[in-house]
Amino acid sequence: MNIDQSLPDRVENEEQLDELLSRPTPAVVEAMGRLSGDIVLLGVGGKMGPTLARMAVRASEAAGVRRRVIGVSRFSDPAAEQQLNAWGVETIRCDLTFSAEVDRLPDSPNVIAMSALKFGSTGQASLTWGMNVYVPTLVCRRYAGSRIVAFSTGNVYPLSDVRLGGSRETDPVGPVGEYAMSTLGRERMYEYFAVAAKTPTTIVRLNYACELRYGVLPDMARRIFAGETIDLSMGCLNAIWQGDANAAVLLSFARCDTPAFTFNLSGPELLSVRRLCETFGKAFDKPFLFSGVESNDALISNGGLGHRLFGYPQVPISKVVEWTADWVARGGRSLGKPTKFERRDGSY
Questions:
Q1: pLDDT tens-digit profile of 151-185?
Q2: In this structure, are residues 271 and 239 in contact, taking their beta carbons and an 8 Å threshold?
Q3: Is residue 273 part of a domain?
């Protein structure tokens, strides 16, 4: 099966958007051809899960491999479950906070653990720690010995001097705020079980995945379009096209190890918030309003290790910015979930 790798000038609709986000690269097709066994995605109903699951299906089919790709979620939105089924993803309804339900999940040699709580975590500390630390414990006990690719976040790092190009995997962690502390706790659980239960694990520190309905770029674009003021104190950020992030996650099964292997998943550029706003303002022919000034540090990650191991992103950020401006100007759908990228105190 040949998969068109060309990029369109614009993204016309959500059907085309989902196709782009789930389009496997030749490297992903090859990797899915080598990988043995089924794949279970825990927390598949989130922002990134559906197109990641669909990419796993498409890449497996292109490689001529028959496998079950199983998406697990509470599925509060029945339409999301129906869409996954239409894409060839099996679905199981499960509340991952209940050990009895987790224990009933099917065996699988390959697991992608995505469940987490970020937005709304402020004021819900116990729920945040339950989702981000207790749930991984249940997952690791249920899937001891399987390959686990576990989602984490660049929030485990402290704010980094922008002149240094972002935090690297070898830099000390220093989470800011309750949410970030709980995500470091999540990592520690996966690290513990990687050794104690001999469970080969990859930890993915993501920062930030974008598509056109959600992410730092559409968030910024919509605020510019609406005439809102942008806070410049978090003056730089990372962004990566969600399709490229999906590809790197599937490729990272090959790096699962004990002790756990950890890498940053982020775009190659250090993006200026001011310059991005200027670009969107010009595209919309609208003035842009700023408050504050750029600080010398920001929540930024260096994604160089991931690029060397899994390849450079296929979709340049300049193209994502172009698509985003066009999508927002035409009134394209938003998930309505602000990223709060400007927060420096770790409260989400």
A1: 999 999 999 999 999 999 999 999 998 899 999 99
A2: yes
A3: no
